[in-house]
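Handout, section B. The chain below has 120 residues.
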Amino acid sequence: MFVIQEGNVQLYRKVNGTEVLLITLGRGDFFGEMSLLESLPRTATAKASSQTKVLVLGSGALLLRLRRDPTFSFEILQKMSSRVRFLNESINDLCSEGKIDEEALQNILNKDETITGNED
């Protein structure tokens, strides 16, 4: 996991062979946490867009910090919740603009159920 202390980092993801900018992060933001928390490969590419200084936390250091510092844990949860809220709003916008239909949305949601095992 990387915590940005100075500068900016842009996160990209390949979509149909094209690199798409997901977000630009700045001081105090973090990335790479999902890979550590889930022990899964990273799904995005990070590129510094200016002179950047980051704090690097390996999985052991992250878990230790989460256990010892409840404030840090809460800050990570808040940021991750904010990201999920943003994605939900983006999906709603795509649906209302007709860029994604109900069947495609259901396929996305069903894919998540098979990954997480949640079949409510």
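Note. The CA atoms of residues 52 and 82 lie 24 Å apart. Compare this with the example in section A.
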